Predict the structure.
Amino acid sequence: MITNDLNQSISLSNSEGWNQTEKDWKLLLENPINICIVAEYNNKVIGTATALNHSNKIAWIGMVLVDKSFRGRGVGKMLLTNIIGALKNVDSIKLDATPVGLPLYQKLGFIEENKIYRMINPSLQSFEKQALNYEPINIDHESFSDVLKLDKRIFGTARTYLLQTLLRNYPGKAYLIKRNKKLDGYMFGRDGVRFNYIGPVFAFSHDSARILISKALESLNNQPVALDILQDKDGLIKWLEMLGFVKQRHFIRMNFKSNSYCGIIKYQYLISGPEFG
């Protein structure tokens, strides 16, 4: 993929009703250690696939998309085979599969880890500022280094480029929470084509995760909101359902080659999106 392919790639994802913006595509394309490929027919982009490189430890495959009129012809398998081949020096390859894509990933050797729910609220109603025991504060340059250290521990490897870019693009959506002067959780967010997106959210407790998400929701009344939550976070899922969120669909987290960098799942609440991990 080159810069000239960007507009066609964005049009392809928009035609499927996906949420990624131009900034999201550029995040993937502008880092030379990431891999972004396209399939073309008569100089038209008919398929895409990307891999976000997290420190050469984990590569996260995403944006696997084929034009409807070219499906069933092996384009998706060709894209995946090529991108997996280009990632031979990365220790582990991961992705969040849709149920439709699951059979192909299984045939290629991917192994299931867990399930993630996409939850949406088409128009958040009457969410009032919460009375909080601990008030989230914006992540700044000084606190960001602490966030990176904690994220490396919980995610399983460093994702410096991803989090730096999210903070640069959306500084007003990045928060942390402290308890007893120690970092207890953090959150990033971004705009989307269809939904405001919240994630990642990592925290040491359900309460800290809820406080962070509440902070994001304060500014999103009467707006569409989406997030992706790990299936084991039952209490938080029930709370979100009380706020009007519904489960739209699910993803299956999968790995290939190795799962040596699984991080600490119990502290992972919201992911960064299926395209980012």
